[in-house]
């Protein structure tokens, strides 16, 4: 089976792509374990679990095949989860800063990187607002949410600046980089490329 590490700028649609691959094509998004509190939309999900720092460190020494730090929180993925679904193509969603670590470790996940150009930064803002449920917030809550959104967009711009140096390594590892123009880019370019990679591996 082919496994894919989905990376990209903040808000670009990594989790959304994982869900499409799961729901429409039977891929297995390997659950992630994190030390941060779950968002309201994540509570009850089978794709992400919140654990204490102590639990995380125990898993990191015994079962995680990959870990990363992001915004002062830790994230990890289990070997045992991957092994239980070895008959399916698997995905993990990771940060841009973690792509180098993945490649350095030689972990057998094909890197797929999603990015946007500066003139498409509004696409990221609209997606982050949806995640924040911005339209349902009170005026006071919107002020706080807008601060978080600005922070996420600044982070995305910083991540975008790092992509150019990553492109050669991603392609050398058999991966690809996609500039997301709108939601159709996933359906017309990214997903067909991933499915072709899976078919080529099987042949």
List its salient traits.
21% strand; 9 strands; GK/Ca_channel_bsu; 203 residues; four-stranded mixed beta sheet; Rossmann fold; 7 helices; alpha/beta; Guanylate kinase-like domain-containing protein; P-loop_NTPase; Guanylate_kin-like_dom; five-stranded parallel beta sheet
Give the topology, please.
Layout: E1 3-8, H1 14-25, E2 28-29, E3 32-34, E4 48-50, H2 53-62, E5 64-70, E6 73-78, H3 79-84, E7 90-94, H4 96-105, E8 110-115, H5 121-132, H6 139-172, E9 176-179, H7 183-202
Parallel strand pairs: 1-7, 1-8, 2-7, 3-4, 8-9
Antiparallel strand pairs: 3-6, 5-6
Helix pairs in contact: 4-6, 5-6
Q: Can you give the mean pLDDT? A: 88
Name given to the CATH architecture of one domain: 3-Layer(aba) Sandwich
Strand coverage percent: 15-25%
Question: What is the N-to-C order of secondary-structure elements (H for helix, E for strand)?
Answer: EHEEEHEEHEHEHHEH
The CATH superfamily of one domain turns out to be P-loop containing nucleotide triphosphate hydrolases
Structural classification: alpha/beta
| Major sheet description | 5 strands, parallel
Q: Helix segment count?
A: 7
Which percent range fits the helix content?
40-55%
